[in-house]
Design a protein that fits this description.
By secondary structure, the chain is mainly β. The protein has no helices and 19 strands. The chain has a 6-stranded mixed β-sheet with strand order 1-2-3-4-5-6, with no helix packed on it.
């Protein structure tokens, strides 16, 4: 069915395909619906667009069982974003060994914040640092009930802070004690051990000062 162009406004009622009464374009006040099989597939209502719904409530509303957006490039299936039957939001890269990357614009500098690595089973922060001159680091932190920096990684200075956002050493703990829950007793001064390893038992504190070389300090009571 073809219409010729004309100058000025033209008024139409609904447009229906002659060979199928269930296929039409429905025109109403501030409303257009593209219908197939008797159902509105695509709706424009005012300034909002609906797919699978006649009453969109956002600029784009997608309504379906397990609503999913599929991305293709040149006919090749690339990715999906959707909601599954368990009401989980799923973002899936369908290309083998490729990643899902989240970036932010920090005062006009684009920085990579999070990468789900498809080549290895890892969640990576700042993976692109130093690659091809990319120094767009972001810091990483985990909040707790009473601390905004319960765990903090200073991406630019290679330091980790616990309960501090200003670590001055490789590991900086803003607290007054640490705990090793389980005891370990090296079998001898030449037992297997890595330099810097520390352990304890009821009688001694053990320090590995070189590969497979242990010293021990007896506990004093007071």
């Amino acid at each position: 069915m073809t219409y010729k162009y004309s100058t000025g406004q033209r008024k139409f009622d609904d447009i229906q395909f002659e060979g199928d009464s269930n296929t039409e374009i429905d025109f109403e006040d501030d409303y257009i619906a593209l219908e197939a099989a008797g159902n509105p597939v695509l709706v424009v209502s005012g300034s909002q667009v609906g797919i699978g719904t006649t009453t969109p409530t956002q600029i784009l509303t997608l309504s379906a069982a397990n609503p999913t957006i599929r991305f293709e490039e040149g006919g090749t299936f690339k990715a999906t974003i959707g909601v599954n039957s368990a009401d989980n939001i799923l973002i899936e890269n369908k290309t083998i060994n490729k990643h899902i990357v989240f970036k932010v614009n920090d005062q006009s500098t684009v920085r990579e914040g999070l990468r789900l690595n498809g080549a290895v089973p890892e969640v990576v922060i700042n993976e692109q640092h130093g690659i091809n001159g990319d120094n767009s680091l972001v810091d990483f932190r985990v909040e707790s009930e009473n601390s905004t920096h319960m765990l903090f990684v200073d991406g630019g200075n290679d330091k980790i802070g616990i309960n501090t956002n200003q670590p001055t050493e490789m590991l900086d703990i803003n607290g007054n004690s640490i705990r090793l829950r389980n005891s370990l007793t090296p079998s001898s001064a030449g037992a297997l051990g890595a330099t810097g390893q520390i352990c304890w038992d009821a009688n001694y504190l053990y320090i590995c000062i070189a590969t497979d070389t242990w010293t021990r300090i007896p506990h004093d009571t007071w």
